[in-house]
Design goal:
The longest helix is centred in the C-terminal third of the chain and has 17 residues. The termini are far apart. The protein has two domains: 103 residues, no CATH class; 98 residues, Orthogonal Bundle (Recoverin, domain 1). The protein is elongated. 62% of the residues lie in helices and 3% in strands. With 209 residues, the chain is an all-alpha fold. Helix 8 packs across helix 9. The chain has a two-stranded antiparallel sheet. InterPro entries: EF-hand-dom_pair. This is Calmodulin. It comes from Polarella glacialis.
Length: 209
């Protein structure tokens, strides 16, 4: 299950929105649209004999922190022959499995939470990074859809949105909807700062000294 999760997150990163519409974007040998630019770039790194070594693979994923942390494991999973190389054949087979197997894709709200935790380390960090970068305390439906695609989530956005919002299509979601436990911890932390300082802001600066 962990191996599938790692490979699924990697493909979700390579194809952040292309897999959402397979009828238009199922072009394994390197598509030409901007939606598949990472896939195209990755494909271009393979040598003329269809292989890619560890150093090239590591260099490609280094700008995605969570993937880079697990780069060696990803490489070994796709090095199906144990030869020390990833091949285009192995990559295409992994993608075919991703397309075919329902359990291999991110589809539900639970899958979204798992994906966000894998990509960002925890749900609170994902909230701050892609759902609420301006620190407004809320995220509207359009921003939610955009953030999910950025994270590589290819599941049912409408259903996930309704689940997070308690059935409402209109009200913005908050961190509490995404991660109640993290929201409770942050509230306790802010109360502790307020009790010991004139404001949360002053308490934070004192805490950071």
């Amino acid at each position: 299950e962990d191996d599938e999760r790692f490979l699924s997150a990697f493909l979700g990163w390579l194809l952040p929105s292309a897999l959402g519409d397979r009828s238009r974007h199922h072009r394994p040998e390197g598509s030409k649209g901007p939606r598949c630019h990472r896939w195209d770039e990755f494909w271009s790194r393979f040598r003329s004999d269809g292989t890619m070594g560890w150093s090239e693979f590591e260099l490609f994923v280094r700008w995605e922190p969570k993937l880079f942390m697990n780069a060696r494991r990803l490489f070994d999973l796709m090095d199906d022959t144990g030869s020390g190389f990833v091949t285009t054949r192995a990559l295409l087979e992994v993608r075919r499995q991703y397309d075919r197997m329902p359990d291999y894709k991110h589809s539900s709200l639970q899958d979204l939470r798992k994906l966000l935790t894998f990509r960002f380390g925890n749900l609170a960090r994902s909230w701050r990074t892609i759902f609420d970068p301006d620190c407004t305390g809320r995220c509207g439906r359009m921003n939610f859809a955009k953030a999910c695609k950025e994270a590589g989530f290819n599941g049912d956005l409408k259903k996930s949105w309704l689940e997070l919002g308690g059935g409402s299509q209109l009200r913005p979601i908050t961190l509490r909807d995404l991660d109640r436990e993290a929201d409770d911890l942050l509230l306790l932390f802010s109360r502790a700062l307020r009790e010991n300082h004139d404001s949360v802001r002053e308490g934070w600066f004192a805490f950071m000294k």
